[in-house]
Write a structure and sequence with these properties.
By secondary structure, this protein is α/β, with parallel strands linked by helices. It has 13 helices and 11 strands. The strands form 3 sheets. A 7-stranded mixed sheet has the order 1-2-9-6-5-3-4, sandwiched between helices. Strands 7-8 form a two-stranded antiparallel ribbon. It has a two-stranded antiparallel ribbon with strand order 10-11. α9 crosses α10 and α9 crosses α12. The longest helix has 21 residues. The chain binds nicotinamide-adenine-dinucleotide and zinc ion. The site of zinc ion has 5 residues, from α10. Zinc ion binds next to α10.
């Protein structure tokens, strides 16, 4: 059972990648657990509730439904869930289980972080994106009208149970969106994983167990290592933002409707790769290989009509921008990146143009 330890100031916990592990959740809950609250969406509960429910049958539990969707990832929903917890007998011995995609794990994590000033949360992510990214690392939060994830908290889970069997029902587009984050992990920190992704895209896209299980484990290992070294996003955790600087601008510019997060990040990674090549930090050969591999996990919704001036203006207002300085994570070779700021705007413009026109 591949298990990756995440060591943080709050505590150390395991991220376990194993088929069927969602049916063993009780053994990861505290011994003296009180009421258990499963936070999920109706679609996920209908599809997979029968896997989780038997494992908590002997406990006193309640399933709380959340409408799902980015528009509902709001503080009002957290408050509504907290009210439901209270009216269903929650106290400080209660535990929250987040059972869903990244929206559910972000909301349930935040709910657990602030309910009675904090109760434990067990994360059981059900989308590929949440399994390799959102559920591991302790970042929780919700959106404000003015931007995504602007209120939240670090609240590390007691464990993350990653069950690849749950992905069988995930729509193909959601799978590809998650795979872009896996490709990201290869580019930033694991050249061997990148090679698998580059050479076996058909097997991976078919979700063949031999490939997908190893890749999920590889991506979770990268995230666990990076978070353990740098929980609160100093320099190292920033490498996880490869593709996200321009990706966030693209998502915001298209009002979070046209692109799934992973797809916007894919365009952002392509642009950042062009930028690294233009600056002479990355060989043209590696740049071509990276961008070809990203496109192999497409198709990506077109981005060629986006206004590059608008995207550049948005870079400055990104939440990751510190004191007006835009930071880019740029590959220096496959498996290695470096964080660079103070890049000339014309260069950024040129890189975005090359990416969005889909020119190598
Ligand atoms: N906290 C972090 O570090 C972090 C990192 C990355 C992303 N995120 C957040 O994650 C969110 C995106 O997460 P997401 O991509 O998982 O989207 P999502 O949570 O909206 O899930 C996508 C869709 O798939 C459905 N679904 C979930 N599991 C399914 C399954 N097994 N089978 C069929 N359908 C299923 C969901 O109900 C939803 O409709 C964003 O809000 C983003 O901000 C957080
Ligand atoms: Zn991401």
């Amino acid at each position: 059972m591949p298990t990756f330890e995440v060591r943080t100031a709050q505590h150390t916990y395991q991220s376990v990648v194993e088929r069927g592990i969602s049916a063993a959740s009780q053994q990861f809950l505290p011994k003296k657990v009180g009421r258990v609250f499963v936070v999920t969406t109706e679609d996920v509960w209908q599809l997979h509730g029968a896997r989780l429910a038997p494992s908590i049958e002997s406990l006193s539990y309640e399933v709380l439904f959340f409408p799902g969707g980015e528009v509902n990832k709001r503080f009002a929903q957290v408050e509504a869930l907290a009210d439901q917890m209270l009216s269903n007998g929650a106290d400080r011995t209660s535990v929250v289980i987040g059972f869903g995609g990244g929206i559910v794990t972000d909301v349930s994590g935040f709910l657990a972080a602030i309910f009675m000033r904090g109760v434990p949360v067990l994360q059981i992510p059900t989308t590929l994106l949440a399994q390799v990214d959102a559920a591991v690392g302790g970042k929780t939060g919700v959106n404000l009208v003015g931007g995504k994830n602007l209120i939240g908290s670090f609240h590390q889970p007691i464990a993350v149970l990653i069950d690849p069997d749950l992905l069988a029902t995930l729509p193909a587009r959601e799978v590809r969106a998650g795979l872009f984050e896996v490709v990201k992990c290869g580019i930033i920190r694991d050249a061997a994983m990148f090679e698998t992704l580059a050479n076996h895209s058909a097997n991976v896209l078919n979700m063949e167990q031999g490939f997908i299980d190893k890749l999920i484990a590889g991506a979770v290992r990268v995230k666990a290592e990076v978070v353990s070294a740098d929980e609160r996003e100093g320099d190292l955790r920033r490498i996880l933002n490869f593709g996200h600087t321009i990706g966030h601008a693209i998502e915001a510019e298209t009002e979070y409707v046209r692109f799934l997060h992973g797809e916007a990040v894919a365009w952002g990674m392509i642009a950042a790769t062009h930028l690294a090549a233009i600056r002479g930090m990355l060989s043209v050969e590696d740049a071509l290989r990276i961008n070809k591999t990203i496109h192999a996990y497409g198709p990506l919704p077109s981005a060629c009509d986006l206004n590059i001036g608008h995207l550049i203006a948005r870079l400055a207002s990104d939440k990751k921008t510190l004191q007006g300085k835009v930071h880019f994570v740029l590959p220096t070779r496959i498996g290695e990146v470096s964080v660079v700021s103070g890049i000339d705007t014309d260069m950024i413009r040129r890189a975005i143009q090359l990416a969005l026109e889909n020119r190598s």
